[in-house]
Amino acid sequence: MQLLEDRIRKDGIVKEGDVLKVDSFLNHQMDVSLFEAMGREWKRLFDGCGVNKILTIEASGIGMACIAAQSFHCPVVFAKKTETKNIAGEVYRTQVRSYTHGRIYDVIVSKDYLGPGDRLLLIDDFLANGAALSGLLDLAMLAGATVVGAGIAIEKAYQPGGELIRSRGVRVESLARIKSMSEDGDIEFC
Amino acid sequence: MQLLEDRIRKDGIVKEGDVLKVDSFLNHQMDVSLFEAMGREWKRLFDGCGVNKILTIEASGIGMACIAAQSFHCPVVFAKKTETKNIAGEVYRTQVRSYTHGRIYDVIVSKDYLGPGDRLLLIDDFLANGAALSGLLDLAMLAGATVVGAGIAIEKAYQPGGELIRSRGVRVESLARIKSMSEDGDIEFC
What we know:
2 copies of one chain form a homodimer.
Chain A: H1 2-11, E1 13-15, E2 19-21, E3 29-30, H2 32-45, E4 53-57, H3 60-72, E5 76-79, E6 91-98, E7 103-110, E8 119-127, H4 131-143, E9 146-156, H5 161-166, E10 172-181, E11 187-189
Parallel strand pairs in A: 4-5, 4-8, 8-9, 9-10
Antiparallel strand pairs in A: 1-2, 6-7, 10-11
Helix pairs in contact in A: 2-3
């Protein structure tokens, strides 16, 4: 998606440790007009697939998922990283390793909001190692839901996550696929 | 706001321990068409106040903040509950007690995205003890930003948060103000 690639080139910052900082527009400060364009693009890509729910994971995926849901006319469910008292009853549960935070999270979704009748679009901001997206797939599988595909904002295509998820038979549509990047600011897209 | 009160009466569940469970439409599964109506209402209430940025806190506030931002044509910044490696440089930092999780969080915002030129609308899903909203006020004050007001989805008006925040001189607009609720499901609004 040209608009997103241009924005990454303009405002993304490559930091040491293979970090692409896009927090001026994507995952700390959020440009909702960009999210609207991204939502329309995912809708174009997954149109006619019968998506009835979007599943994402807190926190960075929530904003873009909600705005994408406007195009799909469906609700959003976000998986929570820790159990809270407010989720009563039964939950689906899996574990996700966060490379950013260097720890493993329990990730849960209430059984009330995912089930065999659901046709899910998974949404997240980044796909690198594939840990978060694998966790969402686990939750969908536990619920017996159908995964129509995954809409990703930025895929680090040189990391194993994309291949891992696609090898599980999931259609992944990443709006920007990074082939390589270097700390002098050079970002090459696929 | 009648639409939100009706929805709370219809789908909200009162649980023991003064918990109002609205996670079927507000803060786990999210009804984005309801968020659109809420965003338009906050826009009506704060129209002409020069809001140039919405500040919220992860995770439950993010969805409604992003959709409200479409009405205000401004970006959203969300305060993060733990420091991540991806936030380089300087941050504003305060602490927030979570009564839901029974712990105290560090809450941070990058100094790059809040400053003296900002006129902020604070958005959050609940106002009860006022802890989260006080944290957002602290961050705004540290940044030297102007707080135009706070847009809250549900205020438990019988708890001290609303009075606490209003006594700090902040205009608080809560779309549903609960006067009392009981475990037999009776919810009374102000």
